[in-house]
Amino acid sequence: FLMQTSEMLRKICMRNLVRKYCRGLTAERKVQLQQKVVTSAVFSGKKEGYLESLSQPFLETRLKENDLNPKVLQLIRGENIKYVTPVIKYDRNGFKARERLLVLTQSSAYVVEMAKIKQKIEYSTLKGISTSNLSDGIVVIHVPEDNKQKGDVILQCEHVFETVTKLCMLANKQSLVKVVKGSLRFRVGSGKEGTMVFTVGPEPQVFKDKTGQLTVV
Fold first, then answer.
1. Contact 186/194 with Cβ under 8 angstroms?
2. Which of 21, 65, 145, 160 could form a cystine bridge with 137, CB 3.0-4.6 A?
């Protein structure tokens, strides 16, 4: 009987401590925890660097709204901008690296070049998000095969865990994130596909190999 009472009191005490902790959380801290839970579900035990990312708080955004070109702001007026981060975008054909911004609003993701919107992906049409199991920052945003889209978007993000978490939460498509090993296929456009190969080497690099594949080291 004493053992049962002790166990019951222990559970009540633990419940009270948890309730007290939750009530004391700031709104910002609560958002952080919600995001980290999603990151864990997507990446834990799957991608290198996940454990190191646990101690790094996610920022609300990497760039402010007023850092964007006024023409871009005008083009996406009416949409609530949630997150902006610098990225490297790789062309789908020649794989040339280009500096871009990834802008996430409440309803869409935009790939932006200075004053131009290069590509818009509505979350409702998003087909998938792929990353590798290695420590690179490559993210592939898979889009539908239609006339509105040029093909899948290949990006390199410095804060890959943060960016993917923000994207899949805003799109409400956590289940569409895939962490792949070895290689992945992406759509180039006009019914064509390309291959990306992930490997390990002495220094990080991304290049087009002799077979025409995009190789990520």
1. yes
2. 160
